[in-house]
Amino acid sequence: MRLDLNGVSARIDGRPIVTDVHLSAGPGEFVALVGPNGSGKSTLLRTVYRSLRPSGGVVHLGGEDLWRMRPRHAARRRAVLPQHGDAGGEFSVAEAVAVGRTAHKRPLDRENAADRAAVTTALERVGMAWAAGRLLSTLSGGERQRVLLARALAQEAPLLVLDEPTNHLDAGAQFTLLELIRSLGLTLLAALHDLDHAASYADRIVVLRDGRVAGHGPPGEVLTPAFIEDVFGVRAHIGPHPITGRPHVALAPPTSPGPVSATALEADTATS
């Protein structure tokens, strides 16, 4: 399913965070949203998963205005893996994933065979079927993140929105999750903190700076050393990864780093 953001702007407490953003993601395409902390990545995603109504512009999903859809209709079309997901530690894995079926049920409907099949399929796709009866609180961080992904997949929505999905995961869990996400065949819009991950896995990259689009296109065209230094303030080397052959971004500190202010270190990641 195609996603189009046409001139989308967003405010928080009257302050402009995102301004006149245009981006698109075609069916089955992986679009990565990158930018420095405070650039508006998470805020922009909130306009797509209907947590923050745009102050301007339109979010189109499958040609329809996402914000004019009924909530249940919207939930059947886009699923979300949030940055700070909580599936409930005292739920079993299967119970947590079953929450994703809410979009397909009326308030008093009971679980049916289709729901159980969707939960089983979702757990199998993320490699967590073995843990269906386990409590979430007994799983590792990477395993819980895969359960949350299974919950999103159980919605059976064609668009998946992800906000920093690899946060707080070790290196192995990060790669496992990214490989899995890339293999799903869904339309993907993901805010990613790691430029190397974005270059390796995304079909296209959209770079935000100060709430505006600073660059967009295929990774090899957008992520040049000069552009990365201008936007992120670090030096970069771009080339094929020596093991995978995929685009690879290696970063280094600036040649002459200036003093870092306390304000910069405490940038509000809520608007990243």
UniProtKB/TrEMBL annotation:
Gene3D superfamilies documented for this protein: P-loop containing nucleotide triphosphate hydrolases (3.40.50.300)
InterPro entries linked to this entry: AAA+_ATPase, ABC_transporter-like_ATP-bd, ABC_transporter-like_CS, P-loop_NTPase
Keyword line: ATP-binding, Nucleotide-binding
Cell division keyword on record: no
Domain ABC transporter, chain residue ranges per copy: 3-235
Start and end residues of each stretch annotated as Disordered: 252-272
Pfam families the record matches: ABC_tran
Keyword ATP-binding: yes
GO molecular function, one term: ATP binding
Protein name per the record: ABC transporter ATP-binding protein
Organism for this UniProt entry: Actinomadura fibrosa
